[in-house]
Amino acid sequence: MTLADHGQTRIRPRTLLVTGGAGFIGANFVYHWCETYPGDRVVVLDALTYAGNRQTLAPLEEKANLRFVQGDICARAVVSALLEEEAIDTVAHFAAESHVDRSILGPDAFVRTNVNGTFTLVEAFRQYWNACNQPTHFRFHHVSTDEVYGSLGADDPAFSETTPYAPNSPYSASKAGSDHLVRAYYHTYGLPTLITNCSNNYGPYHFPEKLIPLMCINILMGKPLPVYGDGQNIRDWLYVGDHCSALDAVIHRGTPGETYNIGGNNEVKNIDLVHMLCALMDELAPELPVRPSSKLITFVKDRAGHDRRYAIDATKITTELGWQPAQTIESGLRHTVSWFLTNREWWQPLLSDEYQAYYAQVYTNA
């Protein structure tokens, strides 16, 4: 949903700095923005770590209004130079270490990128905003996660924007820290910040280690489908295209200093999700090494500190900004499975030796 859907006219084109724009959600956002607002300029800053893939943005790099810069958000000089050179007025901050399993194996990278990196970015933006005489149309949008709220019981109400933070993994703790920093910069300095906390995303360009692409790829390869614990953990699933339209709404119509929760209204148990994926793969993939693919489901030792349930109450963004998701879990999964089946050239190179070593470390001994 864009401004045009509300009959509104944009005051001016925007010049965006999108951090982590070669990652999963960031890249989908870049596509959304370039297609929706072709007159805007988009500058992507990405360190191209294991989950960043410049090839994802290759079709867009042919356009004059997109610039890609390989760089680290912790590098203050790089960030400050980009803000000034490109006359950035909007930061969309996606760059983050984001996989819980990896945060358990190596938490230091999560603190560095998610906490120190966010501090470097928001402080550079504050100095730049001050030098520009604090324009009111500037925005710093920090993209975060529902995992900062901790875990819910089966009958607990869904997370709202006033739910106390209770992170349970190094990943979620580092994201909670970054949220608090961004919030503080609004209350201390008046910096026009926005924070969004989203539920589990899925869709095109999703790195293979995450649950949905992992299951799709393993089914195609006839490999076991590892399901943590008893498979009863519940997540609210948000199609990435819906997430991007929500971010669009928040950047244009959100109130500075506010937080907005973004959910897909799709609470699903992990084991049920895997069975849904198996059924779709059986239907859409004509030649599978194992059929029915549900025979591949294998329960493995549960993840340390595994949150039992996440659920998002998206009432605020719906009532205040008029956003709601367009995809159901059924339609979103069908789009996603179809994309992975027709874009093997994108994901096959990602199954590197490093990825295989990580996979073995997480699941072989689980």
Give a description of the structure.
With 366 residues, the chain is an alpha/beta fold. It is built from 13 helices and twelve strands. It has helices spanning 24-36, 58-61, 76-85, 100-105, 108-131, 170-189, 211-221, 240-253, 270-284, 315-321, 329-342, 344-347, 353-364, and strands at 15-19, 41-46, 66-70, 90-93, 139-145, 193-198, 200-202, 225-228, 234-239, 259-262, 267-269, 297-300. Helix 2 links the parallel strand 2 (41-46) and strand 3. Helix 3 packs parallel to helix 5 (108-131) and helix 7 packs across helix 9.
End-to-end separation in angstroms reads 42 Å
Percentage beta strand: 15-25%
Major β-sheet profile: 7 strands, parallel
Alpha carbon gyration radius: 20 Å
Per the principal axes of the C-alpha atoms, what is the gross shape? globular
**Secondary-structure-derived class:** alpha/beta
Number of strands: 12
- What is the average per-residue confidence, as pLDDT, rounded to a whole number? 94
Which percent range fits the helix content? 40-55%
Low-confidence stretches: 1-8
Summarize the structure.
The protein has helices spanning 24-36, 58-61, 76-85, 100-105, 108-131, 170-189, 211-221, 240-253, 270-284, 315-321, 329-342, 344-347, 353-364; strands at residues 15-19, 41-46, 66-70, 90-93, 139-145, 193-198, 200-202, 225-228, 234-239, 259-262, 267-269, 297-300. The chain is an alpha/beta fold.
Q: What's the topology here?
A:
Layout: E1 15-19, H1 24-36, E2 41-46, H2 58-61, E3 66-70, H3 76-85, E4 90-93, H4 100-105, H5 108-131, E5 139-145, H6 170-189, E6 193-198, E7 200-202, H7 211-221, E8 225-228, E9 234-239, H8 240-253, E10 259-262, E11 267-269, H9 270-284, E12 297-300, H10 315-321, H11 329-342, H12 344-347, H13 353-364
Parallel strand pairs: 1-2, 1-4, 2-3, 4-5, 5-6, 6-10, 7-9, 8-12
Antiparallel strand pairs: 9-11
Helix pairs in contact: 1-8, 3-5, 5-6, 7-9, 9-11
